Amino acid sequence: MLVFPPALQRLIKELSKLPSVGEKTATRLAYHLIANDRDLARSLGAALQQAAQEVRLCERCFFLSEEPLCSLCRNTSRDPSVLCVVEKPVDLVAIERGGEFKGLYHILHGLWAPLRGQGPDSMKLKELMDRVRGGSVSEVILATSATVEGDATALYIGRMLADLGIKTTRPAQGIPKGGELEYADDVTLSRAFAARNTLQF
Amino acid sequence: MLVFPPALQRLIKELSKLPSVGEKTATRLAYHLIANDRDLARSLGAALQQAAQEVRLCERCFFLSEEPLCSLCRNTSRDPSVLCVVEKPVDLVAIERGGEFKGLYHILHGLWAPLRGQGPDSMKLKELMDRVRGGSVSEVILATSATVEGDATALYIGRMLADLGIKTTRPAQGIPKGGELEYADDVTLSRAFAARNTLQF
User: Fold this and answer.
1) Would the CB atoms of A52 and B37 count as touching at under 8 Å?
2) Most buried residue, A96, A177, B69, B86, by most Cβ within 10 Å?
3) What is the CATH number of the domain that holds A28?
4) pLDDT tens digits, residue range B101-159?
5) Which residues form the domain of A147?
6) Which own/partner contact pairs does B169-173 have at CB distance under 8 Å and 24+ positions apart?
7) Cβ separation A4–B93 shorter than 8 A
8) Which of A20, A29, A37, A44 to mutate to test the interface with B (most CBs of B within 10 A)?
9) Are residues A144 and A101 in the same domain?
10) Would B62 be classed as within a structural domain?
């Protein structure tokens, strides 16, 4: 490390701040960028600067956007009466990939996780309530993950919305498509049985 | 992906060009940089640009440097009569970490690997020969890795140097410090036995 030129040491130090990148990986990446692919070093550097400069949060749903409102909120063909609440932007991307949902979103940017010291203030929850009180929302789909923290957050928000008289739903939990019964865990199985559907003939 | 703002899509695309980074990891990294740690996005971007701009190869030993000559070649307390030949800059760093070697280096930036289409011209070999012909070198340590390609490269270069009457050596191969005999592979064991040392009492 000590014999590397200062600019390279700085690059290694910055790279090792990335999640799940240690000093060895950072050194390998820095060497690759400087010795083998300097064009990528330049273009990646420019892309980082540009994204840090231009990407912000949508003022309405807090998805990532370069405009005050994101492409989804600007899209007038989406149904504004149904809001889908998710934890983070990649969750929205996953739902959009499904192509089923035609309403608007609200990104919490956090979960209610008291064990990690994250209370209701660590989420965009006040903003959600303000949106719902705005009046045009008839249903809120609480699509946080099916984890302990995701479930707790959905219950917490669901109760607050119930006080406002808003219909809240949660995506069905059960055996995933292609999942073998043999390998399903106990909680998944018991939920799948409790929420069993009548077959229609 | 499609709903992400263009600057973020560009960042994901650039990140996914890094070795062993796929689209999922690139998306996760980009989201972390833009949503959680925008300062890191800026400083990493600047470090990349700076390193791509300022770091070049040392004119003498081809290590990485910001000056025409690297810090090692500029260090007058190093012994210029012993040259250590390595494949890549991180090999030099590993040897410097050991602190044993006090001579100068020569980085090949490649190996003789005919199966991967890399002949002698893919290494800084001509430059090594020019340095050795310069006259002040009395020993060349061929410290390429103990792999098939590393061994082949060392033999290839060693034969060329022998024609010039230069003494060439190769680091000892054997059981690594802390290595259990039980788990040593056949080649390592047979080399360790062939090169066994007499104990001095």
Assistant:
1) no
2) B86
3) 1.10.8.420
4) 999 999 999 898 888 888 888 899 999 999 999 888 999 999 999 888 999 999 999 99
5) 77-169
6) B169/B139, B169/B140, B169/B141, B169/B142, B170/B141, B170/B142, B170/B143, B171/B141, B171/B143, B173/B146
7) yes
8) A44
9) yes
10) no
